[in-house]
Structure formats: structure tokens, C-alpha cells
Amino acid sequence: MDAKTLRVLEFNKIINMLKQYAVSDMGKAIAEKLQPSTDINEIKTNQKETSEAVSMILKKGSLGLGGLRFVEEYIKRVNIGGVLNIGELIHIGDFLRVSRRAKDYAKSESKNDSFPTIEPYFNSIETVNDLEREIERCIPSPTEIADDASRALKEIRRSIKIANDGIKEKLNSIIHSNSYKNMLQEAVITIRNERYCVPIKQEYKNSFAGLIHDQSATGATVFIEPISVVQLNNKIKELHNREKNEIERILALLSGKVAENAETIMSNACVLSHIDFVFAKGELSIKMNGTEPVFNTKGYVNIKKARHPLLDSSTVVPTDIYIGKKFNTLLITGPNTGGKTVSLKTLGLFTLMGQSGLHISAFDNSELAVFDNVFADIGDEQSIEQSLSTFSSHMTNIVKILDNITPDSLVLLDELGAGTDPTEGAALAIAIIKYLHALGARTAVTTHYSELKVFALSTEGVENASCEFDVETLRPTYKLLIGVPGKSNAFAISQRLGLPEYIINEAKDVLSHEDLRFEDVITDLEISRKSLIIEQEKAEEYRKEAQRLRSEAQNQRNKLEAQRERIIREANEKARAIISDAKDESDSIIKEMRKLQREGAASKALEEQRARLKDKMNKAESRIKAKAVSYKVPDKLVKGDRVKIHSLNQSGIVSIPPNKNGDVTIKAGIMTVTVNIKDLSLDTSEEQLTYAPKKFANNIAKKKRSNISAEVDLRGMLALEAIDKLDKYLDDAYLAGVSPVTIIHGKGTGALRKAVHEYLRTNPRVKGYRLGQYGEGEAGVTVVELR
Questions:
Q1: Are 751 and 714 in contact (CB under 8 A)?
Q2: What is the C-alpha separation between 593 and 596, in angstroms, rounded?
């Protein structure tokens, strides 16, 4: 890619943002060298890496790579027989621990978790657990070797402790002895030249038997090693030398084990560096709400709701940019500071970011093309040192662009032809645009020249665009309007700022009739565009409302159908239970009768038992028949007829007569159901018609009221899952007459609360809702009042 373009489009600032999310120096180094690719397969792979890193971060949290260090120098040294010190071995141990944790991080917690692009990186990591544990066992801190690092070291340190205790015991007897009380400057034990000593007054130095090792700055005190502890001090010094040699042996042994695993460690270092870089891309994407663009090789760009990543995300205005399908040249006009240059930079920067494997801050499924190069001439390039004016510097840059451009390039030209005579500048601009257009390169140009607007209107494949400007507030809206040429608004702005009207009219007289007519056409186009946008927004609202109503109707129908099937199933189960009870009773009576017969009981008793059995069977038969009363299917039904729905044991009124399939829509109390005419009969009972639905509804409400809770807990659920549960709960609460109810969604990021409130806003059963107050759960709950 053109180096100047990377600088002009501020790609280096994106790289700096990326480096901030890399943990290791190796990851930062990879980010520093990142360049756009022109291979679409490589680009797609890099984009998939970023997308999978984002998914893993959102599902599992950030990948902790703290302790990932540059270990190549350590490996080089051990490979030639060098010995690592304590700190360097700790770094190796940290690296091995990071390798193990990274491998554990990638283990799937669910069968649905699949990351085919970056999982191979994690799988290629080889853990060296034995070496990691050995380093951790031998080196507990950066300043010491553990006593248990070896048996010899443990024994040496035990001997040192015993010798030290012996010396202190003898020295304590000296400093507390009355014989030496007058000789001692202080009753303390001190160390000089790694030997235990006592402080003796200068005048007694010849009277105290021992070796002088030091004296105070004033000379009043000399530090003498008593002759009685010289041998023990010698022994301690010898033990310390042995300790030092043993530590060096342990470090050499550990360094040797590092050398044995050098190839694995270097392989892991390479893999972890790339993983660090990939997850830095993922963290950057999350930071700027990025999405993966869709790439093509046809030169088609369609960026939806683009937000320049270097602008404040809370104030930047999203804009749509597209080029390459119906036109390959875009001319952007409009007032200064209106967003023309930002639109150019956004288009160029998104192309560079996308081809580098980075996500872009735009809506899902935005499309980018793979360009072999991106050329940009943006900003004031005048140079006093090179004696170049603004026009000359721009033209020098454009000449270089024209020398290197291909049909697969993207060209961005800001204020083309500016800095010279307007007539000549406009002519040059048109000629350059014609050349680029004929070549087939994708070109976006900003300009103030009206001649270029006319050129775009009259040339196929060239499209006008403008940055919207609000004359009422004298402020740009920063929205890019493709298809509408920009209006200068100079007269309107001047009038709003107080310029006398007669001066403005004089200026209008200076303009030709064609210029005024062209500006009027632009004004008419702007009015038409705004009217069209309003109508489109209304149409979209109506479409969404119709879709919502259709969805609600379908859900209601599904619920009623499920309720109908449940009622039929329960009726059948009750009928089978009646038959089973009757059979059990009859079996019991028959057994008793046979027993009486065997025992020779009187015939009167037998008759009584037979009568009782017959009575039981008659009652069971009548109850079964009550469940299957025969009825006459009506030949014809019209709207308003009263009918009985036998499968539901309900009465209702025909709302829609039978269709060709015999399906009838019936209003039964609070329900509207569709059933087949074969399930219906005419109902002449006025009392049943008015009473049954009410009784049915009351029974349902009574049953619901006994089971329904006044709160529902949605914490830990995904938005879609939570809304499904909430929808069923509100249905039950509505039927049961329970209100108000409490929805527990937790605080967290607020995403679940937002989804719940959006659902409640469109639910017809909801009268109102509010966040919980103090003692109710505050922002973690929503209290809902039902109609």
C-alpha cells in the first residue's frame, strides 16, 4: 500500500490503538508491522480470526496473557551451555504457566462452541508441566532458592543454622558477662566482613582476645571477633561457600532442562505471540463496536452506518457510504466543515482496516472491496522549503497517483482543482475525473465547483453526493446524501447572519439564470428527498406494527390450539379414569360375590351385591356418555349464529362463516378460536351461552391465580430466551388477574433490562412499568402494572 496514503488516512493511529491491547512485546511487534493485504483469502482468514477472538472474549472473558515475555535470548544462552539466573528462570516459569493457561482457556465448554480458525493455534501449544512445576518448587521467589530444591542444600542450610545458633549462644554469654561489661561499648552482636563480632571500647582493644575486623567512624569503638568463635565463623563461611556451589548446581540443572525443551518453548512463543495479536484485534473490535465486513473482488463498497473510529463515539454521526455497483465515481459537494473530508477518510480508512484483518465500526454485513492500492490526496500539502503552493503540491501528488493507478485501485481526492483559477481548476478536475472514470478505478472526490455537479448529472457512472446542512441552525448534520448534489447555502447562511437583503439580491443578479435555476433544482431535490424519507419512515413503522400484530395473532392462535388439545387430552384421561375405576369396582364386587358363593351365603345377599354392581355400572356408563353426547352438525352457519364447540365443551358466536375447508372462526368468551364445522352444533341454550364462557374464564383465572407468582426471575438468560419466558409469564399473570408483577433482570450491563423494556413497550397487556425503588431491587428489577 502507498505509504503516504497510510499516513494521510491516519492508519498509524489505528495501529497504536491496536498495540495498546497487546499484552506482550512480541504481540505489539506484530501489530506494529501490520499492513493491508490484497489476497482475499488471506483477508477473510484474518477477519475470521478477529471474529472468533471477539466471540471467545464475550463468552469466556479476556485471555489472560500476563507473564508472556520475550524468552528468545534465554533460549539462545542455554542452547550454548549457559546458566540462567533466578530471575530468568522465573520468567521461563511464568511463560510455561501462560502457555498452560492459554491452552486451558481454549477448551470448549459446550459442543456448540466452535472456533475453527483460531483453535488450531491453541491446539499447537505444548505444555511442559514437569519443568513448570520443578521451577516453581525450586524457586519460590525472585530472591531465593527453596531449601527443598535438593537434599544437599537442605542439609547445608540446617548446618548453617546450627552453627549460627552456637555462635550466638557464645556471644550472648560474652555480652552478658560481668567480666566484659566495662569493655563493651554496647551489649549487642553485630556482623563485619561476614563474621560475627562484638563492639569493644577503643581503650580495651588490647585486653579483649580476638580479631579486629572494623572500627567506628570516630574510632571510639572497634569490632572484634572473639577468639572463642573464630572456628565457628570459619565453619559458617565454608558452609556458605558450599551453599553457593549447590545453588549454582541447581540453576545449571534447571537451565539444562530448559535447553531440553527449548524447541517446544520457542514454538509456543511464536504461537502465543500471534494469539496475543489476534486477541488484541478482538479487544479493539469490542472497544469500537466493530463488525466483520463482507469482502468482494468486484469493486463494490457498501458501508452501513459508518462511524469514523478516531472520532468520539458519543458524538460521531453514522453515515452510509456506497460506491462501485451503479457508479464508480462519487462527487461530494457541500459547505466546509460539513463532513466531506471525514467521509473520504472513513471510506479509505475502513478499506485499509478491513484488508488488514481488523473489524470496522459499522453495521453488520457492510461490504468492502479488495483494492490493490489506495491513493489519497487529502489536506493542505503546501511546502515553503520546496517552494510549492497548495495547488502545486496537490498536483504533484496527483501526478504520482496517475502514474501508479490501476483499475483495481481506490482513489480519494479532496478539493480537486482547488488553489487556482476556478474556471481552469474545474476544467482540470473534470479532465482528471474523466480519466479515472474511464480507467475503471473507484474514485471519491470532494469539490465546491458547480461545473462538477453538472458533469456528474450528465455522465453515466458518476454520481453526485452532498453533506447535509441545516440552514435554520447554521450547522452541518454530517450525513452523506448520495444522489443529491450539494448546495452552497452561501445566500441563506449570509441572510441568517444578518447580511442586508439588498446585497443578497444584488449577488443573485450577478449569477446567471442557469446557475440560479440549477440551485433551485437542488433545493427541490432536497425537499423531495426529505419528504420521501418521512414517508419511508412511516411505511417502515406501519410494516413493523403489522408484523407485530401478525406475530401476536399467530402466538394467540398457537396458544389456543395448544389449550384445545390439552382440554381434549384431559377429557380423554378423565374418561379412561372413570372406566378404570368402574372396572376396579366391578372386579372387587365379583370377587366378593364369589367368596359369598363359596361360603354358601344366602341368595338375598347375592342379589343385593348384583344390584349394587348394576347400579355402579349404570352410573359409570352415564358419566361416559356425558363425555360423548351425540350432536347434529349444522348444514349452514352464518355470522351471529350461536354454536357449541364440543371438543372444548364451550359455547360461542360465529364471527366468520365456514371456508371451503369447513373451518369456522368463533368468539367464545374472551377467546377467538378456529374449529372445523364437524366439531359444532347449534346451541339454543341462552343461559349456557352467556354462562359457560364466563365460568370457563373464571375457572382458568382461579387455577392460574393459585399457581402464579408475583415475580419472575430472568437473570442469567439470553435476551431471546428471557423474552419467551416473560411472554408466557405475563399471559398467565393477565389471566390470573395478578397485578402489579415484578420482573427480576439484574443490573449487569443493562442489555437484558433494555430488551425487557422494549418488549413491555409494545405489549398490549401492559398498562405501565417502572424501575424498582429502594427496597424493591432498584435498577435490577422492573415493576409492571397490567391492564
A1: no
A2: 5
User: 290 φ, ψ to 5°?
Assistant: -80, 160
CA distance 776 to 772: 5
Dihedral, CA of residue 159, residue 160, residue 161 and residue 164, to nearest 10? 120
Q: What is the pLDDT of residue 562?
A: 81
- The residue among 532, 556, 552, 555 whose CA lies nearest residue 544 is 552
Q: What is the rounded distance in angstroms from the CA atom of residue 176 to the CA atom of residue 183?
A: 11
Instruction: Please state the three-class secondary structure of 241-304 as a single string.
Output: HHHHHHHHHHHHHHHHHHHHCHHHHHHHHHHHHHHHHHHHHHHHHHHCCCECCEEECCCCEEEE
- DSSP per position, 682-751: E---HHHHHHHHHHHHHHHHHHHHHH--SEEE-TT--HHHHHHHHHHHHHHHHHHT--SEEEE--STTSH
Residue type, 92: I
3-state percent breakdown (helix, strand, coil) of the chain, nearest 5: 55, 15, 30
Is residue 51 classed exposed, middle or buried when 0-12, 13-18 and 19+ CB atoms within 10 A define those classes?
buried
In whole angstroms, what is the distance from residue 663 CA to residue 1 CA?
68
Q: In the structure grid, which three cell numbers stand for residue 497, read together?
A: 447572519
C-alpha cell at 304: 452501513
% of the chain at pLDDT higher than 70: 83
DSSP letter (8 states) at residue 497: T
Sheet of 680-682: strands edge to edge?
671-676, 663-668, 650-656, 642-645, 680-682
Q: 731: which 3 cell numbers?
A: 399471559
- The neighbouring-strand residues paired with 223 are 199, 214
Q: Which residues contact 325 (CB under 8 A, 6 or more apart)?
A: 300, 302
390: cell is: 497548495
Cα 702 from chain centre: 44
pTM of this prediction? 0.60
For residues 348 and 4, is the Cβ–Cβ distance under 8 A? no
Nearest to 404, CA basis, from 428, 369, 431, 436: 436
Tell me the per-residue pLDDT of 586-605, one tens digit each, with 9 for 90 and over. 667 766 766 666 665 555 66
pLDDT in tens, 733-762: 877 777 888 998 888 788 888 888 888 888
Rounded Cα distance between 189 and 166, Å, is 13
Distance CA 212, CA 200 (A): 10
In sequence order, the β-bridge partners of residue 463 are 330
User: How do residues 648-705 score in pLDDT, each as one tens digit?
Assistant: 777 888 888 888 888 889 887 767 788 888 888 888 765 444 444 444 445 555 555 5
List, as one string, the DSSP characters of 130-142: HHHHHHHHH-SBT
Cα 104 to Cα 113: distance, rounded to the nearest angstrom: 14
What secondary structure letter does DSSP report for 677? G
Q: Starting at the earlier edge strand, list the strands of the sheet with 475-482.
A: 373-377, 409-413, 442-446, 329-333, 462-470, 475-482
Strand order in the sheet with 367-369: 294-296, 367-369, 301-306, 319-323
CA distances from 727 to 459, 732, 733 (A): 56, 9, 10
| Helices vs. strands in the chain: H and E counts, helices first | 22, 23
More confident position, 491 or 641: 641
> Which grid cell sits at 95?
511463560
Residues contacting residue 718 through CB under 8 Å, at least 6 positions apart: none
